[in-house]
Amino acid sequence: MENLLGLPTLGLRSRWSRPPSTTPKMLNLCSNGVRGSTLLLRPTTLVRPHSASIASDLSEGCLVNNPALSRGAASTPTTLTKVLVCRSSLEKKNSQNSTIDFLKKIGLDDSQVEKVVKSYPRLLRCSVEKTLIPKIRVLEDFGICGSELISVIASNPSLLKCVSRDSFLAKLDFLKSILGSVENARNAVKKGKWILYVSLTNILQPNFESLKSCGISDGRLQKFLVKHHKYLCTNPKSLQESLVRVEQVLGIPRESAMFLYGFEAMASFSKRGLELKFEMFKRYGWSESDVLVMAKRMPQCLLTSEAKLKTSMGFFVNKLGYEIGYLAERPTLLSFSMEGRILPRYAVMQVLQERNLLRRNPSIYTYLNRTEFRFLDAYVLPFKDELPELYEAYTGKKSVDSSVQEGKQYGSLQDSCISSRRAS
Q1: pTM of the predicted model as reported, rounded to 2 decimal places
Q2: Which of 14-18, 186-190, 352-356 is most confident?
């Protein structure tokens, strides 16, 4: 049996027919005796949608230059898909070109644009008008402009990530309030890779409140955050755990002047990382109590590298004969540069002692802790006429070449010391 248009009645709905709820039906009996519904189709329902309306929105070249889009093929579903993909591709390409043109317009060169796009590819999907231009205006209003703006964006493209302008402004205002000035906030933005990208309410504010709750004065906290604003971007849970470990592991109370430095050290290590650091000191003869004594007095020494520790141990312990306990109670000795301070000053003092020019011999801790001005005033300038070569050598740091070379040998001396200790 056929329907009114001459189509076989199979009890099935045509692919191009209207939904059953809106299409008139009549009951009919199929050839197999099954009662089915015959669709009364209008002629227009059998005509497939034409692609002309879609194609008209595309560039002429995309259609004409594509051999697959002939008149005969233009009405197939596969061709429609290709047309839509072509359109999407064109829109994407236009968006990418707009972003790249905008970056060049504000002053970035080709290499900087390439670096920005590689580090943050999603930037190409940002709207120039809705996202990029408002961000640039906010940064310029904040005082970051010209070559500074170019440098900031080239090194920190995350500043342009797709967050709202209001959020951008709120974070800048927050930084200005906690860091004390626009200049400090501006420096934090220029150096802090994530500081304007992380959440204000979920990360920046909770971290600041956690640090403030430790009883640290506003002045000290402000000074610390100006230098270490990266901790504002830390996971709040990790930050709180680090604060607890300062007291529990290092034994530094919150009212101590060393508490923030202890926090800096703890924030740099996982639990396992701290265990490995203690093991490193123990390999050079330190006990756990020695390490804790040092950490309470100067927690930053926990960040000492093994190479630096080996050189320091070779000089102070193996050459000069100091006990480890002496170093633990005077940890600043481990923080000084061997080539920049320790060996040049030691060489000067050796010359003066050999010539009997000192009324009393200060300890190495005393003269190494003096500022450069006070060291020159006490041990170099008074002997400038008598020992002009000493003054010239020290101020030019030329007399220490042999001492520096000698200092590099202390590491191998320490290695032999460790080997003999293990053998015994």
Answers
A1: 0.63
A2: 352-356
